[in-house]
Every structure is written in structure tokens, then in C-alpha cells.
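Hi, here's the filled form for the chain we discussed.

Project: internal
Contact: R.S.
Residues: 405
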Amino acid sequence: MSESKPKKIVLAYSGGLDTSVILPWLKERYPGVKLVAFAAELGQGDELKGIEDKAYKSGADEVVIMDLRQEFAEQYCFPMLRTHAIYEQDYLLGTSIARPLIAAKQVEVAHQTGADAVGHGATGKGNDQVRFELTYMALDPKLKIISPWKDPGFELRDRESAVEYAQQKGIPIAQSKKKIYSQDRNLWHISHEGAEIEHPDKEPKWEACLTMCEPLEKTPDTSEIVEIGFKAGNPISLNGKKMPGHELIAHLNKIGGKHGVGVTVLAENRLVGMKSRGVYETPGGTILYEAHKALEQLCIERETYHFKQQVALRYAELVYYGQWFHPLRESLQAFIDQTNASVTGTARVKLYKGRAMQVGAKSDQTLYDPQLASFSMEGYDVTAARGFIDLFGLPMKVSSQVHRK
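And the returned structure, exactly as it came back:
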């Protein structure tokens, strides 16, 4: 048994409640183990402030912090945006899309530091455990996987006991027993679970949980229009100013948040079997999806566009299920990127009282012909429509004739 114990673990460390208590617990669970706390800067705001000092005080032997904001935006969020992937009609996959990147960098750090194991603080009831571990398996199946919440000896089975343990160990945490929201934030979104949100019949306490967005009652009474520039399906500019992906999203988060854009309440189907309810804030992402949709409607031919919508459903499942590095996701991405090669131009989106609505778009690659779209019959052979309708409706006609007999 001693040979199977890890010698050095790279732990996905956020500084939050779960991973904060796991560091000292791992020291107790595996005496002599070396711990590398890995923190990914994905646009969490002030959440990483003082995280290095906190990690060392919690038991880490090494701390590695990587600024991954631009890579996150351009190599993860934007491919998903090009797909227009949405899970169960509402969830823009903010947590789902971040986990594979964190896990991939953990594997990289494990190789750099000589670690023989990687670990995470995801619970045994959530989706994140799957997302982390599938990525570890895909990128280096030789690494040991440490998942304390699935360890029989892990006694911290709820957030209340985790809070008590943190207090006993002198670890500073933001949560308390009276106010316990589980939150995950990055550049793309912030999610909220727990407390009254867990009760489907109750309206969330907006003032208490909303972080990126204003409650609708506090949003401006005047609308605002933003213009997004795209090249091959990728956002490249905001109101005429070019900027890298992570900066563009950050700016849209502020603008959209001011107008309460991108808030959704969803009772979703988790991969592990149960339903869960959460509040999601995705202001910048919501605006980008609306703008991208406006250009796709102009630039992609009908049959391709309709099939792409079907692909988006499966793609969203793959992302939600943690299968970012699955061959199917990578193959679907090649199709998506081909369809988006012509999605270049600008789209204008109006923001008002929680709504983001496309109000105009233009592209040199547009398939929209104003003359064909108008009521004028010039240049269009209307007599061809008779034969088309006869053939298109023939199966319905035959079926009707048979059943009437």
C-alpha cells in the first residue's frame, strides 16, 4: 500500500472553502507528501489576492500561479462561441469550459515539478470531478488522481463541517454557516449554488448573490448599443477598437452587467444523475452569443446552419460532460470552424433591462440579397414555385389520399 501513496501532488487550488481545507487534510492523509498548489488566473477578480500566502499557510510546499485569461478566452471560450453551444437552453457553460484548461495546466505543472499525482477539490456529487479527471486521463493516464471527496477517510461531508475544519486550522475563508453560497467565477461567468437557490420554488435573493450584474430594478432606464467586430467567427473588436479576447470579454462584462444582461436561473440535469439549481451570470458571453448569432444568420447557408444547430446541442453536452479533449469534440470543432470561416463582419446589440437584442449586422460575406428578400418579383421566376411546391408536397398528398380511403 505504501508504494501506491503519492509522493507529490499538484492540487487545483482556488483559495475557496473546498481546496483550502483539502491542503492540510492531504498532509494528514499522506504523511510526508509534497503539495504543489496550482492556481489559474481566469479572471476571478480579487479572488486570487493573497492566494500564494494563503496556500503556504494552509500547507502547500510550492505554489504555481498562471495567468491564463487570454488562452481561456481565445482557445476555449471562443471555439465554444463559434459553435453557439448552450446546455439545456440556458447555460453558457462558464464553469464547464474552464475545468479542462485548469486540469491541462495541472498536468503540465506535474511534468515540470516531477509530481506523480494531480488532485482536485470537486465533490463526489458534482460535475467538476468528471471534468478534471477525464482531462487528467486524456493527457497523462500515468498520473495518480487524488480526489479527497471520494476518499472513505474524508470526514468533511458538507460545507458546515468544512467551515468548522477551516476555523480549527486557522484558515481564513469567506463562507460562514449562516451564508453559504458555492460560487465559481472566471472571465466568462459566475455561478451561485446553495442556500435558498437549492429550493426550486423560491426566487433567489438577487441582492445577496448577484456579483457581475445589477438587479433589474437598478439597471438604467435608457438602452445602450454595442458593436462587436468578428473575423472567422472570433470577436476581435468592441465599438471599433481592436483588443485581445480576454480584454474584450472583460469590457463587455462591465457594460452588460450594468444593464443586468446574462442572468439566468436553471434547474439543470447533472451528468452524475441528479438535478441541481443554480444562478448564472454571463453578461459578456450573452452579448457575444447574440452578436455572433446575428452574423451567422447572414453568412451561413440554410442547410449548413440548421445542421450546425444540431451539432451545437451535442457539442454543449461534450463540454458539460468534461469531454473537451474527446476526439468527437475535436472533430466537431473542425466542422464548426469551417462553417465560421465566412462569419466576418460587425453586429450591433442593444442592451436594456436584462435583454441583449441584435439590432443590425453587416458583412462582406453576407448571403442576404435585399432584392430577393423584397416584395418585388424582379429577378425571381415565380412560376418555378408551382412545380417546387407540387414535388415538395407530394408525400403529404399521397399520404392524405391513402388515409382518406
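Let me know if anything looks off before we file it.
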